[in-house]
Task: structure prediction
Amino acid sequence: MLHHLPFALLPRGPAGRPLAADFDLAFLPAAGALVLSGGANRPTGTVLALAPASAHLRWAPEEARAVVAAHAGPRRLLLGAEATEAAFRDAAPGYRLLHLATHSRWNRVNPLLSGLELETGGGEDGRLEVHEILDLELAADLVALSACETALGSGLPRRGAGGR
Result:
């Protein structure tokens, strides 16, 4: 479980200085993240931001509005009942920046069943799970998860300001 190891804090050299003191570190989820797509498959949309009502996060809609307002178009905002799993699946491939302000749930028994809470509708259950995300054909440059429990892993304590 190397993703739980804080590489930036590993000691380096006889003085034991942390790696982050001497180097800029970048973290990639997989080697496939190094493959850059370009050309015809490049998304034309700038930003897609969403904040579902079912998450009951007081400031999430304002956060999503601010993210969309900070970018030039084409952009899309999905708030409240419009922030369905189906709407996200349909729209997300067309945007370079995805911002999701919602809750996430960690499944320590089967991490592929971990997911993000969205609204139901369009034949979807409103829970966008990891195994479903892996099947999406996204070409985003940046995905921001402003969600509870995004940094949890097996054996880590449950802490944070936004959790239920």
In short: The helical segments are 19-22, 60-69, 85-91, 130-133. Strands lie at 11-12, 17-18, 45-51, 75-79, 95-105, 115-117, 127-129, 142-148. The chain is about 15% helix and 25% strand.
